[in-house]
Amino acid sequence: MSLGLGVAQLVAPNAVRRISGVDDSPTSRAVVPLVGARELVHAAGLLTSRRKGAWAWTRVMGDAMDLTALGVAISHRAGQRRRRLLGVTGAIVGITAVDLLTAVQATRSTATSGRGGPMELTATTTVRIPAPEVYTFWRDLQNLPTFMAHLEEVRTTGDRTSHWTAGAPFGQNVEWDAEIVDEAAGERIAWRSTGDADVPNAGTVRFVPAPDGVSTEVHVVLTYDIPGGPVGKAVAKYFGEEPHQQLDDDLRRLKQVLETGEVVRSDGAPWGKRARKEFPQRPAQPLSDDELAKGADA
Amino acid sequence: MRANTWAGRNKVEVRDVPDPKLLNRRDAIVRITSTAICGSDLHLVDGYVPTMQDGDVMGHEFMGEVVEVGSDVPGDRLRVGDRVVVPFPIACGACGACAAELYSCCENTNPNAGIAEKMFGHPVAGIFGYSHLTGGFAGGQAQYARVPFADVGPLKIESDLTDEQVLFLSDILPTGYMGAEMCDIQPSDVVAVWGAGPVGQFAMDSARVLGAAEVIAIDKEPYRLEMAERAGHTPVNFDEVDVRSRLLELTGGRGPDKCIDAVGLEATHGSAHIAAFDRVKQAVRSESDRPHALRQAILSCRSGGVVSVIGVYGGLVDKFPAGAWMNRALTLRTGQCHVQRYMEPLLRRIEAGEIDPTRIITHTLPLDEAERGFELFKNKQDNCEKVVLKP
Ligand SMILES: [Zn+2]
Ligand SMILES: [Zn+2]
Fold this sequence. Notes:
Chain A is α+β, with helices and mostly antiparallel strands.
């Protein structure tokens, strides 16, 4: 919604000033487009940032600025203009309340997931492939890094045992051994880390036939026991911002790989699962040979 | 290669950019012979659609010759040398949406699905040259384009029809047609179409082809209304008459049986106080679109009629006439066009001479003059209806 106001203030500053009753002041001519630009920054921040708490608070501060400016304007106006200003002020008081609530909630959820201790993530997707095939793909654990962003490599070391390596976001590469603790062919796989893993973790994936008779619902539950210390901090930081988004994106890529054969790439996001974030992207124009050769890390 | 790029709000610029390369195994590279400027390109240029970046290659209506194919494109589907029209939604052909022929809702082709999901609840398909919200795919206002899922989307043209006859199969002709098809037209139907831009014109032609008794064109630009009139439709100029009264007069007081909104979020008409109200709503952040045409269509439609929406909306609207919709048993249908579903049947209608897509072309320019093309189209200068660019 920031977008709507921001666009209006930038595209039609005069109309906005007239409607809100401040069209008689030269200051408002400069201030209204600036406020519009600020709204666009907020909208972009909220849409693209994984740190919504901070962005939500900047909105609350912006609202406070609006209210102050309107208060000053009201005390200098009378009649029709004053009535229009009062109407707009009423609306902004309401919006401020909503923004405040959002900011408080966003901050609260960041705080709880940022601490150490166990963290559980769930996500689900529907893949248009029969359950036994999805199961077979997942049961070959070496396939997991093709769609899970933070996994570098999974090497199977026995029928039920494997060695996992996770990449840079965990700080230094983090490695651990894992074992499958429970499975039902075509239906379910459960695993957990073994030994003294830096980040003890466990997961379950269930493959449930969808009502259409063709597709499979994939339900994933992951738990991480986040320790203290620098590794714990790095893990908490990585997962603390938008953990569910990470897992949702992983499952989206699983669906792409199973349904279309590979991770879908665009010119703006050409690196498949190696892209750490959706934004900022490179422009949507073809890559030069150089950029293509250097890859995502360049 | 040369390509028309977004260069900031209200600014496009033809620049040198790298040639496209295959990124996925089902990609093809197409050398573009004809491309067009679409009404929705204006929303991108205006900054109404968020997530554009400096350097984004624009354009989602294009056709040309295949010059390279990826290793997983079956030879019986597409080969180097084939002449193809490329549909604007990128569809994988394998997901649940594609299986239901809802190609513009493809679940796999938007690499930025996470962001689209926040805007729309569920993500939508990737689209060429149409912001990073729809995937960040380079567009077709260029000499070459990379076409993902080349084995699913592109339509081969094997007859000797001209580019001008088949180019609009990529977007505006199927879009207009879908608008009419969603109306479930009966032989006695009077169909009113809001907006006589390119999509509106094709919605009118399609309503006629599907058997409507009469088609009414609503716009304010005399040249657009004349264009519709020449094609046999009844013009209504909303700058000169009250639309609802005129529609009642034309339909014996019933209202049009079927209404098509081919305008979308940038409508500028509607009564003065509603327009002012919308601006205030935008100003206090509770509305991002201006649904004049949609409101008027719902209020004008006869009871039990269908309102079909093919005009582009991006965000939230307020003062939606839910009372009229519910109490008068209206059906509301909409969607970004599922182009892949309509290309072949419409190609046959073009071959049979039932539809003449060339009638709306007013300007043909070299690609290097894209900027002027946008100016002409945006400001409706020189009676501009549709601009075709030649790379
Ligand atoms: Zn278009
Ligand atoms: Zn699909």
